[in-house]
Amino acid sequence: MGEGRFAAGLARLRARPAEALARRRVTLGFLAAALSLALAQPTWRTWGAGFLLALAGECIRLWAAGHLEKGREVTRSGPYRFVRHPLYVGSIVIAGGVALAAQSLPVAIAIAVYMGLTIAAAVRTEEARLRAAFGQAYDDYRASRAAPMARRFSLARALRNREHRAIAGLLGGFALLALKAAAGS
Predict the structure, then answer these.
(1) Is 13 within the bounds of a domain?
(2) Which of 16, 118, 143, 175 is the most buried (most CB within 10 A)?
(3) Residue 14 has what pLDDT?
(4) Distance between CA 150 and CA 101 in Å, rounded?
(5) Considering the domain boundaries, does residue 103 fall inside one?
(6) What is the mean pLDDT of the chain?
């Protein structure tokens, strides 16, 4: 029975690699984080600069999560007025902060490869899903023909979108980098 499930999973991976990669990006992110921590050589200066950059990225993510109504509409308020995938933009900025804090070329390369592959896969998968769910409304948004919507930021909405998990991950990761900086790498 285990072999059958493995074969079925492998067949799905071959059929839709972008979808499979997008679905596993969190697990792969933990592996990339462990590798990054092992290879990191942070100093307090690089840690501080990286933390500030990552904090800016989390602010973008929080702003986006406070406007997003997943699966219910094509969100056109907040940062969605300016960019189609602000959560991913915030994640890329956070990744840049981690790379800066780590002060390691192999870490920067690993992060760039991980982000490039997983974000591209996630965008492809998400856009196909949004197109299927919302049709012309999403096509208009994508072509910048949709009118912005009036909606205020909502912390409750951001929490419903589980952004507190990203914040906890950011703080936990930087706490580990701080311990490594304190130990002199």
Answers:
(1) no
(2) 118
(3) 54
(4) 37
(5) yes
(6) 90
Number of H helices, E strands in the chain: 9, 0
Crossing angle (nearest 10°) for helices 163-182 and 25-39: 10
Yes or no: say if 172 and 32 are a contact pair by the CB < 8 Å rule: no
Neighbours of 30 (CB within 10 A): 10
Q: Is the pLDDT of residue 99 over 80?
A: yes
Instruction: For residue 177, count other CB atoms closer than 10 A to its CB.
Output: 24
Report how far Cα 43 is from the mean position of its chain's Cα atoms. 25
5 occurs within a structural domain: no
> Residues 121, 18: contact at Cβ < 8 Å?
yes
Three-state SS at 74? coil
Residue 4 lies in a domain: no
- Rounded alpha-carbon distances, angstroms, from residue 132 to 85, 135, 139, 147: 17, 6, 10, 20
Contact of 75 with 18, CB cutoff 8 Å: no
Q: How many domains does the chain fold into?
A: 1
Interval 34-81: pLDDT, tens:
999 999 999 999 999 999 999 999 999 999 999 999 989 999 999 999
Do the beta carbons of residue 176 and residue 170 sit within 8 Å? no
